[in-house]
Amino acid sequence: MLTNKELFEQAKLCIPGGVNSPVRSFNSVGGTPFFTARAEGSSLFDIEGKEYIDYVCSWGANIVGHANKTVIARVTEALANGFSYGTPTELEVVFAKKICELVPSIDKFRLVSSGTEAVMSAIRLARGYTRRNYIIKFNGCYHGHSDSLLIKAGSGLQTFGNPSSSGVPEEAVRHTLVLEYNDTEQLVEAFRVYPEAIAAVVIEPFAGNMNLVRPTSEFIQQLRELCTKNGTVLVFDEVMTGFRVALGGAQQLLGIKPDLTTVGKVIGGGMPLAGFGGKAEIMDCLAPIGGVYQAGTLSGNPVAVTAGLAVLDLIQQQDFYLRLANSASLLMDGLKKIANEEGISLSVDSVGGMFGFYFSDRVPQSFAEVKEGNQELFNRFFHLMLDRGVFFAPSMYEAGFISAVHDSRVIDKTLAIARDVFKILYTQTV
Ligand SMILES: *Cc1c(COP(=O)(O)O)cnc(C)c1O
Known about the structure:
This protein is of the alpha/beta class. It folds into two domains: 4-63 and 319-429, Aspartate Aminotransferase, domain 1 (Alpha-Beta Complex); 69-314, Aspartate Aminotransferase, domain 2 (3-Layer(aba) Sandwich). Helices cover 37% and strands 15% of the residues. It has helices at 4-14, 69-79, 90-102, 115-130, 184-193, 217-230, 249-254, 280-283, 302-315, 320-341, 367-371, 375-387, 408-429; strands at 36-40, 43-46, 51-54, 108-112, 134-138, 151-152, 162-163, 176-179, 198-203, 233-238, 260-263, 274-278, 347-351, 354-358, 390-391, 400-401. A seven-stranded mixed sheet has the order 4-12-11-10-9-5-8, with helices on both faces. A four-stranded mixed sheet has the order 1-2-3-15. Helix 10 (320-341) packs parallel to helix 13. Pyridoxal-5'-phosphate is lined by residues 114-116, 119, 142-144, 204, 208-209, 237, 239-240, 264, 274.
């Protein structure tokens, strides 16, 4: 039997960095990642047979518990009908109807295979619809790895940012403006400097890719008003928050209707499935009826759509999100209380089945404030918890996730382990 260390060495010889997505390599916290052999309920099991309580949940995709029996049964049935046809299917129509019904701002919906594709397509659509080029994104938000969105903040409004990845030409981000999350003044100023030039503003309505950061109500309301006034398409990137924070997504909780919405993660229940939708007038600009081209060989894959439909059925059960939100706050309130009792400064937040904890004495409102958190303390906490069988996201810039099967027994166990860990952290700190 291979150990995680041995397999990581082998992996690095044939896969760049040993992983197929960078954050999995533990590059931010150090050490060797574990290789998952299987998952069940609220747990992952690695190739050495060690069990971990899983608070990453496939980065939010898993909301009904790993290897859910209902989902498995329906996917198994679908498999027998073949994996992909390259023709339309009834399943896709059922799925789109359901999404339109659950998210009132979505009149029409199109499926793709990843969140990256969904946001990339939504941006192209917004540009095609408005016949404008400029877009605004916010510092600390992640919208997948398409060229125009891989950008670091520049200094000030007049200078545009720089690509945050090599291989992205400066020209590709020349029309992307990066602003600070929750900075209403800067937003107002941006629309003043670029009147009638901004095609879209894309935002994570609750940010989850710089840890969890909420918008202030003033900021998000101003954003909606400014977009409406300027004829700019407001894109809520709900790839993470969609069907994660509430059945109707972040837009339901915030009471704000975007023009376009992107979804992913939860809607595929772990299968490669994502999509984007919104106002019919905008969506009808897509090929084959409109001039904005967008396509995909595996888009609307019948197996993935079946998994998605099964998940959508499960999350519509009575009080599903109420119970999820209660579990998340039970975990976060408990963690904060224990940390403080053990002399460690920690603040926490949660929305639906998504949570954040910060080694800092206040809940951050921007990327700059997230950065003020104690990175060294987080990294030690991460490894001490991991050693004891609890898997939190391997970076202090990621939100955490729970599923419907993370019950009070699982949470109590987590908190008991956390108490031991905070004791150790305190002893090491003083
Ligand atoms: C995960 C994520 C994406 C990218 O989705 P992929 O499926 O990884 O391409 C885009 N936007 C947000 C908000 C995300 O959390």
